[in-house]
Specification:
The chain is built from 15 helices and nine strands. The chain has helices at about 5-15, 90-100, 115-135, 150-160, 175-180, 185-210, 235-250, 280-295, 300, 320-330, 340-345, 355-360, 370-375, 380-385, 400-410; strands at about 45-50, 55-60, 105-110, 140-145, 165, 225-230, 255-260, 335, 385-390. With about 425 residues, the protein is an alpha/beta fold. Mean pLDDT is about 85; it is low at about 20-25. It has a seven-stranded mixed sheet. It has a two-stranded parallel sheet with strand order 8-9. It has two domains: about 5-25 and about 40-260, TIM Barrel, CATH 3.20.20; about 275-418, no CATH class. Helix 7 crosses helix 8.
Length: about 425
């Protein structure tokens, strides 16, 4: 098979690894319109460096052969898909060729498991090693690592890669046991713990560098992330977010990626749930953001008995999680933007962290009015029903959350059929 055919197969197979800035976007492309761009294209994705820059990455699998038979995976050993395999040298050449043409700024490399976890991990590490040492490649590298691989191989991967990730696969241990019985929660968590302490050890060494002037060892400076399949088992959103919250706390992850399950056409495959809407994936990302940056808890986002939403343990698909929380707690509003503390400002629908920082800075110089909110680029239509400023006091809207919800919820939209 020539490299172009391999690239077509293995770039397409890599689309199931959620890592892109465009993950969860609707299907859209410019073919036949005379325009440019696509949310569906394979081969190049976008990620973020530790300093916040967005970079384009060549996103491929080393191979889509796999010895495992995970029920949710299109590349499982029993799946009837076209297979291909790159050699490490071919991946290195592709990366360098694409980079020299200014198509990409780095590499995202994952793989099916061939022969064994150690053998596969050796191949992944060899790609990164060759790029760094043989070709002095300074671009961004993200490696998907194999949890059952020898810790020495994980350590080697961290010396060459900017970011490492290990997939937790399923939200619950029961889901993993049912759909991927060849994998173990214990092995996955042990490997994630291994990465965490090595990353923290590298940070400590860099801090000590200022005193000793010695060059510290470099280990995955962009941290680690993970991916979770959503909708292949019967885990509700509360269970998913609880798992994510624990992962952030225990392993200091940079990101949990949620991947909406796409069923594989196979009459013999019996799965608990049908494919959930991509809107569910989108709401999980929004809820995840509230956990990480807005000081919300899982209990607040997905209460056990949610009378104002879609049911206990599930996020409301019609409105975003912060608005859903605000409508469940009208007693907490209106919030006075001229005096409320930061933690309460963060809970106002329509106010992001940047808006809150601007409000706190602006109110040092005088009392805020509606015109000031417009100047600060606040989403006033969504925010004004929940706040008061010098020239605005909300009416009776908070006394009727159902009516307010109907006014603020986006209009229904026909979902894509294909």
């Amino acid at each position: 098979m020539n490299p172009s055919d391999k690239l077509a197969i293995l770039a397409d197979a890599a689309k199931y690894d959620a890592s892109c800035a465009s993950s969860g976007a609707g299907k859209r492309h410019s073919l036949g319109t005379g325009g440019i761009g696509s949310t569906e294209g394979t081969g190049i994705c976008h990620s973020y460096t530790p300093d916040g820059r967005c970079v384009s990455l060549l996103k491929i699998l080393l191979t889509n052969f796999c010895i495992y038979d995970c029920a949710y995976c299109v590349n499982r050993v029993s799946s009837n898909v076209r297979r291909a395999r790159f050699t490490p040298e071919e991946v290195v050449k592709l990366t360098l060729d694409f980079y020299r043409r200014n198509y990409i700024e780095g590499l995202f490399l994952s793989s099916g498991i061939i022969r064994s976890g150690d053998y596969t991990m050796e191949q992944l590490v060899e790609v990164a090693r060759s790029l760094r040492e043989d070709h002095k490649f300074a671009g961004y590298i993200h490696l998907k690592t194999i949890p059952e691989a020898d810790p020495a191989l994980l350590a080697a991967a961290g010396r060459y890669a900017d970011r490492l990730s290990i997939n937790v696969e399923m939200p619950t241990e029961a889901g993993l046991a049912a759909l991927a019985p060849e994998k173990s929660v214990g092995g996955i968590r042990t490997a994630m713990g291994e990465l965490r302490w090595r990353i923290e050890e590298g940070k400590e060494a860099r801090r000590a560098e200022k005193k000793t002037r010695a060059k510290p060892p470099r280990f995955a400076p962009a941290g680690q992330s993970t991916q979770m399949i959503v909708g292949a088992d019967d885990a509700d959103d509360r269970a998913i977010l609880t798992t994510s919250d624990n992962l952030y706390g225990n392993y200091r992850l940079k990101r949990v990626y949620y991947s909406a399950f796409s069923p594989i056409p196979d009459a013999s495959l019996k799965l608990p749930l049908q494919r959930p809407p991509l809107q569910r994936e989108h709401r999980l990302y929004q809820a995840d953001w509230l956990l990480r940056f807005y000081e919300f808890t899982v209990d607040e986002i997905t209460p056990a008995n949610d009378n104002g939403g879609s049911g206990g343990g599930m996020l409301d698909l019609d409105i975003d999680p912060k608005l859903a929380w605000a409508l469940r707690h009208p007693e907490r509003f209106p919030v006075d933007l001229n005096s409320a503390p930061r933690e309460m400002l963060l809970r106002v629908p329509g106010l992001g962290t940047r808006n809150v920082a601007r409000i706190l800075l602006s109110r040092r110089h005088g009392l805020l009015r509606v015109d000031d909110l417009v100047r600060l680029r606040v989403a006033v239509r969504k925010t004004l029903p929940f706040v008061q400023v010098l020239d605005h006091h909300p009416g009776a809207g908070l006394d009727d959350p159902a009516r307010l919800r109907a006014r603020l919820a986006p209009p229904p939209r026909q979902a894509a059929l294909f």
